[in-house]
Amino acid sequence: MTHRPPSPSPPSPGDRQPPARGPGGRTATGTKVVVAVLCALLGFGVALQFRRTASGDALNSVRPDDLVQILDGLQRREDDLTEEVGVLTDTLNRLRSAGDSSAEALAEAQRRAEALGILTGTAAAAGPGVRITVTDPAGTVPPEVLLDAIAELRNAGAEAFAVDDVRIGMQSAFTGAAGSISVDGTPIGSPYVILAIGDGPTLSAALSIPGGVVDTVRRAGATIAIEQADVIHIDVLRPSHAPSYARPAG
Amino acid sequence: MSAKGDHVYAALALVVGIVAGVFLAPTVPDWLAPYLPIAVVAALDAVFGGLRAKLDAVFDAKVFVVSFVANVLVAAFIVFLGDQLGVGSQLSTAVVVVLGIRIFGNAAAIRRHIFKA
User: pTM for the complete prediction?
Assistant: First the structure.
């Protein structure tokens, strides 16, 4: 208890109530008061201890030995957690580098997809090239001539083509007869405009070789104009076509 | 019989003490902190003993006072000694166990008095 009362204890029987002492005489008022004070002290102490315990500041009343033990436990736990942090950091680094390389792979795949998209005609393309205009008012130019022109351009390194708003791809076909030519089923008429992206001088040289496309067109009685441009835009697209039979192998 | 009056008197004092402890809420000094719980348990033991003695009609206020004070002092001293010897927590456990057993015994006697069972 906080304040030990100056306990008046003239008689000192060893322990508590010896049963023989019973109702021997009236209790003095002073003794009564002391009893009351002691009871009040008990209540005071109980309330105090309750508050101390409830306040949660448990470390305050802990003995040094126990404190050392608690500290030990905390240190062990800290060691464990530090180890865990290390492991998790390793994992994080591993995942991060994996993420980097997969992002790289993704970018590479994207680049390839774009390149293939230009070649197959499923992506818009722009670049230097030539614009070829074949004017055929009499309808004397057969479809083979246009096909030859495309083949010649491709041989010369052209990478993307369009004929009169039709994008040329792997399966493109010129059909019909002179005067009523269709490309991939779409009828086209004079003047035929061929756009090709590639090295301009090379392309125009390829068309102009003796016995080449220019000669053939002129012999058929039509006129052809080739103009080189720094930027040719080919915006028309071909529908992308998923292979029905062939699957990637290897 | 004056025993009845004593009883009410003591119980009233107990309540007053609790109320004072709750409302005054003084800070327990550090040197006292380890002894307070043990002292409270020892005092509880004395109070239960006194209650039992009263029900047995053998209550003596002097005996109560002496046993109360001696209980508290001895319990605190044992804890103090244990702290100096380096077995403080074990000794306080021992004190709490012994006092707990006594409290239980007294409570059983009180129960037999009150419920006759």
Answer: 0.44
